[in-house]
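[job 0412] stage=fold_complex status=start
inputs:
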Amino acid sequence: MINVGILTGFGINADLELGQAFEMAGAIPQFLPLTSLIEDARALAGVQVLAFPGGFSFGDHLGSGRVFGQMVKSRLKDEVDALIARGGLVLGICNGFQTLVKMGLLPNIEGNWTPTVSLITNDHGLFQDKWVKVRYNDKSVSPWLRGLQEADLPIRHGEGRFVTLNEQVRKDLKERQLIALTYENENPNGSQDNIAGITDPTGRVFGLMPHPEAFTSRFLHPLWRRRREVGPLGLKVFENAVDYLK
Amino acid sequence: MRVEICYARPQLDGRGAKLLKNIQASGQIPTLKAVETLDVILLDQTCGLTEAALVGVFADPVVQQGRCDGTGPSVSPLPAWTLAIEVSFKAGVTDPVAITAREALGFRLQKPWLEEAVVQTAVLYLFDLSTEATPDEIAQLTARLHNPLIQQAIVLKRSEWAQGRRFPELYPVVKITSEGRAETVPLTGLDETALLKLSKDRLLALTKEEMRALQGYYLDPKVQKARREAGLSVEPTDVELEMLAQTWSEHCKHKIFQAEIAYHDKVTGEATQITSLYSTFIKQTTRDLTPERPWLRSVFHDNSGVVEFDDSTLVCFKVETHNSPSALDPFGGAITGIVGVNRDILGTGKGAKPIFNTNFLCFGDPRTPAEQIPSGLLPPKKVLEGVHRGIIEGGNHSGIPTVAGGFLFDESYLGKPLVFCGTGGVLPAKVQGEDSTVKHIEPGDLAVMLGGRVGKDGIHGATFSSLALDEASPTSAVQIGDPITQRKMSDFLLEARDLGLYKGITDNGAGGLSSSFGEMAEASNGIRLDLDLCPLKYAGLAPWEILVSESQERMSLAVAPDKIEAFLKLAHQRDVEGAVVGQFTASGFVEAYYHKTLVAKIALEFLHGGLPRMQLRAVWEPPVRHETPLGNPANLKELLLKVLADPVVASKESLVRQYDHEVQARSVVKPFCGEKADGPTDGAVLRMYPWSPKGLTVTHGVCPRYGDTDTYAMAMNAVDEAFRAHISVGGDPERASVLDNFCWPDPVESAQTPDGPYKLAQLVRACRGLRDACLAYGLPLISGKDSMKNDAVMNGKKVSIRPTLLVSLMGAIPDISRACTTDFLEAGDLILLLGETRPELAGSIVEKVLGRQLPGTPTVRPRRALAYYKTLAQALRRGLIRSSHDLSDGGLAVALAESMIGGRCGAQVTLDEIPGYFWHQASDAELLFSESPSRFLLSVAPGHWEEVQKLFSGAPLSVIGVVTSSPRLVVESRGKRLVEAELDELLTAWNALATLV
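[job 0412] stage=fold_complex status=done
writing structure:
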């Protein structure tokens, strides 16, 4: 069976539905309070997937995901590196994506967790909850994205504007196919190159602003009463992970 | 030391961009060219981190830079700044960012954190104006950027900067070193005048009868003897006095709802004696309905009402108001309201998990010109902005979706906004094999305070909200909730619940520890508190302040002695502070000690039962109105556009999109529906479990303007509105329960309130309307709240709210895949009107828009309506209905426009066959805009019409038109075209509010 560790605590709040999504995909979710892992990280040895859910860790104070990221990086870096090295997967959604980016685990092109991209306050300055169309990168090597092309997903964030440190990083992301998905038709937050999610060079670490875990049933789509087909469920992302690890 | 953090490149500062956009939209400062914001962290005694280390902790290395040398503004991306304003919290006000900064630093230091370290935060705004800012412009900017009640703003011009002036290295800190102690307050010898003076001076908010009752207790020879034996003074201590005042406050004891009322109806001659509105109309209603509603689990006596969802799951619901604090500090008031009602859910039964928020917000019209706002009151637009921000942060940061609610605008809310904060929760039917609604607290159990520390914030909240707002309102009554601290506590509590680590739990809200432990003590019949054991934010609080402080994010618990170690260990591990502050006893007394000295001892019986019942007079006389029938205004399209653009009706999407309504992945019917997800929905539908078709509905009803003629009709309408919305989204008519929240102007007759008897009669009639509608529809009342002093007196001018009853409904929907929305689905579908239309426009939106009084109070006939509500529920369950929209403000005309907006299509409608007995008496305009209750605008596929017709046989239902693909509304009557409006015109009108707020 596939064991999924889901980090909780300090204001993370989309953990339960993330657990449900993995469960529906056939994995076994295990909720891991960061406070417990800091005392004893052994639980990480038993998981094949480590997931960083959405929420407001530390209230987004001092920048979304930053304080949570600092805690993970300074206490659990070796364990996370070991997980990736043994073929495990890492996922960050929304605040989880912000955390992965701020601690440098994404895009991690150099492999040393140096932050080179960031997610900052939306260009319009507002938190927004709406559904958007995204396009997945079919040239990505990431196991998370197999067979995915276009989908509707909800976004719910105030700090989702993707920016890179410099043009070189921007170029690297494109050329190495690390851009996992982009916003289609509209750019809801001013993200550079419409980027909604990226992976690391292995493709096993994946982060995105939209919430696939909030689209595990057609009845959660805003147009489910108007459309016979509502496109691929966000659930597919989790099924991909389970298929890959099986 | 000051650490200043800014973006390293231009155009990255979204916060600055939003501010610039808002200022430019207001047209206030035309010379403003650019804005940039910086975060400032001020540190003292944080034991020597280097500048590089500090910047590393606080700045994002990818996009930000930080400086510690005080030269920040000049190196920012806005070197041309001409004006700088720095905003920070006043000493003693909760600063959540500083809490996080403290944690981040502590973590970085990796050593025990120093108590004496000071961490403060501020936001520095840099403005580039093309000409030197005028004093007027500076005043406008500072007013926009801060609330002087809780924050300070320091202004620095570039010229001053050049002369060497700088922002402070540190802001003032609360430093109280003296140990507080209990004082004795002379009471037994006071005459009436002196008693009242004492009540006023100490903000006790007690009447002379109540002060007399207090005095009587202390004069009782038996009490005096016992006090002497215990080593206490005969006169009360300030601790006792404050505890009694909090417990006896209107806020906590609902004295008006418990009062003895002599009700006289001048029309019918009725003279009735009512003992407790609450017992007579609310409790009794639910009691009458209990036999037919076996799914009621725990009503009235817990922090929220609990009903069964299925065999293994219970759901609970509560709505609170937070009006007075929101009037003073809109942001802090609203956020505290939300996290406060969340705690009611956490404190229900053995502890429930919040799964949705729903907020109803009432403000003055945001368009009110400045000269019409009484001085001393915040402009309604500013109140709206602050409250809205509080709702966003309170809900979003807590991870609780804001699924429903609404906004209401009325000039009567200028004096006090109404901020209704509601939360629903879920709890397992059994916890550790025991019924989850049962709490059992026994003598010997330990009293534990959990969560935040105690400070001077929120002292006197309960008594203050029981008074009218005036210039002297205490600023200490304001608190700012911190959702993150509470989230940590709530995660911990649910974990501890499932491990069986505690036995009883309740929240710390109004009245602080005095209320929470005062109530819990009834279970064991006594408690001993050691006030010096309560963790404090800073030294120097008097014992009475510790007891009544309303510092946020706290729960009170009863923990068995053999579980306390495990409980506190887990709390510590989850970064939640908990402390044993006393022990439950069977002494019959609440006893409080401070450093081992007894400072309070009050008999529980007197504390909870000693309050004398108020004796009040209510006189009903119908108000005099000057009504003229609507007739047939020449341009109905123009009237429709005006109604759509009125803030009451207009789209609230720009506001509601900023709420997270989808976290927890439950939302099946969201706040908006339709092709472009901008059509309004009638209410929320939530799924409970991914594997189950069963779901919840959440709806509201509120219609204060109908109270202009009669609050009886108003209350019936509020119930009907909530219930018909529940039916409209697909809810089960047999499975819904409601909450009542009364917000009233002071109804107690006095020199300041000569019309008290009328306002009280309005209250009596509203209670009767509520009861009659609930009984007829089979809707048990499971919880409620009242707020009875919604007046503001400024410069001798009194602004009172319209009596307002909010009915909030939580119901069940058997199959979420049959949930319905308001948007027309397909061209060619038939448009149906269900329910009778009568010329009823008194209190309607058209009355408001036209500024003239119209006849006909909308009247609910619940027994007639219920029959076809049940049929509609059946039709929805069979999938026969394609769209359903309940008619409310603006009647048929508005419902048509809204269903079209959702469907991005048109409608061709005739008024020739509007159902109702009085069609021949109604003008076309009345048929279009009447607000007769219990009506639905439906659409059905033509192929289903016959089946629908058969199903509804005998019900007031007709086909009134057809959905068209051309995006145009066409309304005809007897061959004459009355309205022809393009969808785009309707949309433009309906989006009027987006440009306003």
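[job 0412] summary: DSSP finds six helices and eleven strands in chain A.
[job 0412] exit 0
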